[in-house]
Amino acid sequence: MRPGRPLVRFLSAGAVTAALAALLPAVPATAATTPATPAATPAATPDQVPDVLPAPAAGTTRIQIGAFNDFHGRLEAPDETDDGDPVGGAAQLAGVFDAMRAKNPHTVVVSAGDNIGASTFTSFIQQDAPTIAALNAMGVAVSAVGNHEFDRGYADLVDRIGVQGRPGANGAEPLAAFPYLGANVLKADGTPALPSFATTDVGGIRVGFIGVVTQQTSSLVAPAGIQGLRFTDPVAAANSVAAQLSDGDPANDEADVIVLLAHEGSAGTDCATVQTEGAFGRIVQDTSPQVDAILSGHTHLRYDCQFPVAGRSTPRPVLSAESYSTAVDDLVLDVDTTTREVVATGHQVLAVEGFTPNARVQRIVEDAVAFAEDRGRQPVGSITADITRAFSGGDDDRGKQSPLGNLIADAQLQQTEGAGAQIALENPGGIRDDLLYAQSGSEGDGVVTYAEAAAVQPFANSVVTTTLTGAQVRQVLEEQWQPAGSSRPFLALGLSEGLFFTYDEAAPAGRRVRSVTLDGAELDPAAQYRVTVNSFLASGGDNFTTLAEGTDRTELGKTDLEAFTAYLGLPENQGLAPDTDLRYAPAAATTPTPVPPTVAPTTPVATPTQTATAAVPPSQRPSRTPVAAAPSGSLANTGTNVAPWLAAGGALVLAGGALLTAARRRAS
Predict the structure, then answer these.
(1) Of 122, 154, 333, 552, which is the most exposed, with the fewest CB atoms less than 10 Å away?
(2) Where is 568: in which H helix or E strand?
(3) DSSP character at residue 228
């Protein structure tokens, strides 16, 4: 037994397996005591976790559960406050747990999944091993499996990452010192593919954790990696295990408190809809009353709700802590020591800011950053001339289509041909630097390094392919003309080769696109097309709301940066030259007179902004003017010929922490 760690038992379809798990403090979050609307995030005093309940009554034991979700390898802080202080990051996340442990020693830390996968380069370049090391060090006791845990396939999850919480000596495989739970993940013969639950002692109270993952996982990851697995109804699976943990038979293992860790989440933050809409609404409504709380994730949203449940004396908390370590769930339960019933609940979702970083985790992060910076100097491709964003007056202009935006769209189309992709689109705000011919170090002119590619695409969005009708594709192109009040009236999407549209700037909003062709043939409004975008756009980002309506969603299992570097490494793509031909044109022969933009016909959804940088002077309409070359950037991308072995690469890049602080939170 590991010193200072309680025994944790795991069960898959009745088979109990002994293993060890780390037990550490819980996490802060935002207070909400009614099922209506989540309350505002409480402001935390440094290293202080706000109270959510008065002092416990005599005869009760107070336990605390800290939870996070959708970490996605964000070892470095993914955001910052207006004052420049870090928000999130592995070391500060661990610092929150330290503060919670100091406040209440009866604390356990858990995750609702997607700890790894779609990670930034700092974690990805070592196949997320530094992230698992950081989670071990901060004392994660148990995690639900997320869909991104399957990005490298089931075999990698079981054999390298580990699902039973038994790491090898000195960090040898498997890596995770905590179990990964998936009660609704079955093999082809119906036997469990993962542990269903884990139980642990917290202050003398036996707490059971059940893990489930979204039933859509099979459409979110590469099919080859999960061949033979079935993702079943999460409600039925959770209820079956909850009944087992409450049947009074010690041979099946028993729990005084049961918590569901669900890697499935609400599509909105209003508690009134959290319990009613979609697959997650069914989880909230139909999960057994034996389950005392639901901690969720997957949709990267923050909500803090509670709902009455028939047969329970206390309402059931339902929480989600956004993503990327920027927030945490803090769940406090008072348990009667005689009846073992929960008699009081308190909860909040607290921003991860203002906490002292954990020194041990900080060292893990620093080592990972140093390793990534070294690997960032490696070549991934070559170019013959600058391939840049669009510019006006020396500033990048997102209102004009650019050779680099079109190149990224081409790369994502090629990488997702296996998912049936026919069209790919790239948002200009996702492109943060240029590929420049001149060397940035000693790599030689024309060589593109990992670091240089990472500077172009630093957000580590996943790559998503969905199905849209021809009419919807046309509407997406209309949405380039942004709603009134937007920082830029027009956002020029990068378009994959073969897609072309004409426009009439003088036409009313919603009717500016006149013709859309794919490989020379007009799009059929009723036909279906497979369209690839990054996960930011797929969620309706930058007011491209129609993209969120896509169906049959498939994830590549790579970030946009991975897809880009894999494309750059192909032998046929060595010595890439910029394609300066625009993939749109005015419908008339003469240049139309610009008119003020008007409100687009669709209502934009609230989405996270891609960057926090100040708006640059926008173009009123698409331009036929050749794109000007960018001035030398602070991190130039260059190159000479690279060896064909790069073609096998799917290796990505993100160079060091400086790139990551610019990255904003993204849905996955």
Answers:
(1) 552
(2) helix 560-568
(3) T
* 140 phi, psi to nearest 5 deg: -65, 125
Number of H helices, E strands in the chain: 14, 31
Element (H, E) at 197: strand 197-202
Spatial neighbors of 574 by CB under 8 A, at least 6 apart, are 381, 382, 641, 642, 644
**What is the full DSSP assignment across 77-145?**
--EE-TTS-EE--HHHHHHHHHHHHHH-SSEEEEE-S--SSS--HHHHTTTTHHHHHHHHHTTEEEEE-
The shares of helix, strand and coil residues in the chain, as percent rounded to the nearest 5, are 25, 25, 50
Q: What is the C-alpha separation between 123 and 175, in angstroms, rounded? A: 14
198 by DSSP, 3-state: which? strand
Residues facing 17 on adjacent strands: 10
First to last CA, the chain: 37
Q: How many residues does the chain have?
A: 668
The DSSP annotation for 639-655 comes to: -----GGGGG-------
User: What pLDDT does 144 receive?
Assistant: 98
Give the pLDDT score at 644.
34
Q: What is the DSSP letter of 194?
A: S
Q: Are 504 and 592 in contact (CB under 8 A)?
A: yes
Tokens read off for 147: 């869909």
In 399-466, which ranges are continuous DSSP H helix? 403-415, 450-456
Q: What is the pLDDT of residues 595-607, one digit of tens each?
A: 444 333 333 333 3
Task: Give whole-number Cα distances, 362 to 70, 94, 387, in Å.
Answer: 20, 9, 37
SS3 string, 122-138, reads: HHHCCCCHHHHHHHHHC
